[in-house]
Amino acid sequence: MRSSLVALCRPSPALLIRTPDIEVAAAQDVLSLEKEPISTLEMRIVERNAEYLGISHSLLMQNAGREVARVISKNEKVRGKRISIVCGLGGNGGDGMVAARYLDEEGASVEVFLVGSESSISSEDTLMNWEILLGLDNISTSVLSTESAVRSCKSILDADIVIDALMGFGLRSKLREPLLSAVRQVNKASGTKYAIDMPTGIDSDTGEVHGSAVKADHTVSLHAEKRGLRGAEEHAGKLHVVSLGIPAETKYTCGPGDLIPFSSPRSLTAKKGDFGRVLVVGGSDVFSGAPALSALAALRTGSDLVTVLAPEPMLTPIRSFSPNLMVESLGTSILLPESASDVEQKARMNDSIALGPGLGQDQQTRLAVITITENLSKQSFPTVLDADGLKALAASELELNPESTVLTPHWGELKTIMDRDLGSATDLGNRRKQALECAKLFNSVVLLKGPVDVVAHPDGTFKLNHTGVPAMTVGGTGDVLTGIVASLLGQGGNAFRAACAAAYISGTAGEFAHAKLGDHLLATDCIDEIPFAFEWE
Length: 537
Known about the structure:
Layout: H1 2-9, H2 20-30, H3 40-52, H4 57-75, E1 82-87, H5 91-105, E2 109-115, H6 124-134, E3 140-144, H7 147-151, H8 154-158, E4 161-165, H9 179-188, E5 192-196, E6 218-222, H10 233-236, E7 238-242, E8 277-281, H11 289-301, E9 305-310, H12 315-319, E10 326-329, H13 340-347, E11 352-355, H14 363-378, E12 383-385, H15 388-391, E13 405-407, H16 411-418, H17 428-442, E14 445-448, E15 453-456, E16 462-465, H18 477-490, H19 495-517, H20 523-533
Parallel strand pairs: 1-2, 1-4, 2-3, 4-5, 5-6, 6-7, 8-9, 8-11, 9-10, 11-12, 12-13, 13-14
Antiparallel strand pairs: 14-15, 15-16
């Protein structure tokens, strides 16, 4: 039932509700974005978010193979030439298999060698393209499943052109057999060598050689240059960067790809606390629900331990929400400046802090928030400020840390902390501009909540999140978002990545809740759906 519900509830990219003039503004912005060298993680995020926007992995593989063949055909006279394509078991191998068909079409004599066992092909799309080749008479296919089979393959040595499609990006450790022998065989070949995306054996982030690496004459980098190529020029040869048809919008769209840094399987030896301890500081003599909602959301997002530090009168109400919460007293009826050092000490016993839900706006509380925030920022301690914690920043001139601090205002709170008129609240171009200005003013990541969330970094980087539904205007959903951000920060994410992932998770959870309950959802309903927001495929 749950899997069926998730499938039904998942937002189709084609059905995302978008205001036309908002999209025009966003499209104009993105025209100026240029592709910088990209890390392995960033590339994985881009690929997943492209799929979220409707560009399947299969389509990307077809485009990659076509572009590789196009580069080779442009640089070489391939008609009548012998081309050996040495393929691995993953997506890079699939790219090479697709390229084989295009090079065959150009009149080359193509041989494709699969290094490893057919039964171990790890990508469905690679398997599909391998099976296509097996059904063709004009392209020769062979399986080199052992070290000795690779070493005895003379066709690789004698080919006019050799294509390295063994690994691509993402290598982290030394090559094993038979891949190691395949690299050495490619290097012994007399023909011109092309590597797809990365020469096999090179770390795509650092340029480090893991034991042995292909020395290519040309590297065809897919979508964007990989960072590791800057440290591996002698192995990369001439660099060609080709487009895969990934929309420019992918770069600034929050999606399931942003969950990748927070989705690693837990080790069998994991223990309590390994996945984050979160401290929520909130509540006042008026508000008890806000800190409890943030804490419960942090637990549902995966944090192991969550403690609510609250004023004395709020302890019993907050404890009544759930036995899963640990609740401790500030020892006073509201947060006071004399409590600041105790709060900071307790924060350092955790991995992140959420400061602000339900704190109230007493002047003494505002002074305490400023002191705590300033001191934790100097220590680069992961911090999210929301609600009353945000309002304390107004006219404070605090300079925070964009690697560890997230501010989560809605438009009204943004006006308060910026202390000026911000113009149109409905124009996304203006919302993005104001979020970026706020990020620069406080030197912090800003997650501006709204129909389309804006995540802004002081360096000018931004992302837009389109998940969520109007029913999430119900009270408490902002506190839920705060808890999600705090949890991801506590799990080791930097501020910008945590904010992007949290915006997507919060909105998607709200969509799932809305699919079940319509416009009658509660903040707690969104919390219940958080685990399923991680399940997008």
